[in-house]
Amino acid sequence: MSDWRTLCRLEDLPEGESRGFDAPPGGFTGLFAIRRGERVLVYVNSCPHVGLPLELVPHRFLDRKGERIVCAAHGARFRIEDGECISGPCIGEVLEAVPVRIEGAEVRVPRDAGQ
Prior knowledge:
mainly beta
């Protein structure tokens, strides 16, 4: 069995948008992905401030301009490229990044990501 699992197909994640994913079977925390060109960034869906999921509305992780990740619970803002909090109650803390592989048309993450 592979140590990696398919999160989604690249075509299911439009350029400049984000998408949330449920935790894997037996897991506790979901993931979310953001696409920037052919690059996909994936983070654990948990705010470092209090551990809550970042979004209230499904798949809505970005601000209106699509420039920052936003925690809907308390407004913390994070850089997309490295997940560092740049404003709000957790300044300097970072979202937990997940390694990503693009294999063919699939976005793959470690099997245990989100557990």
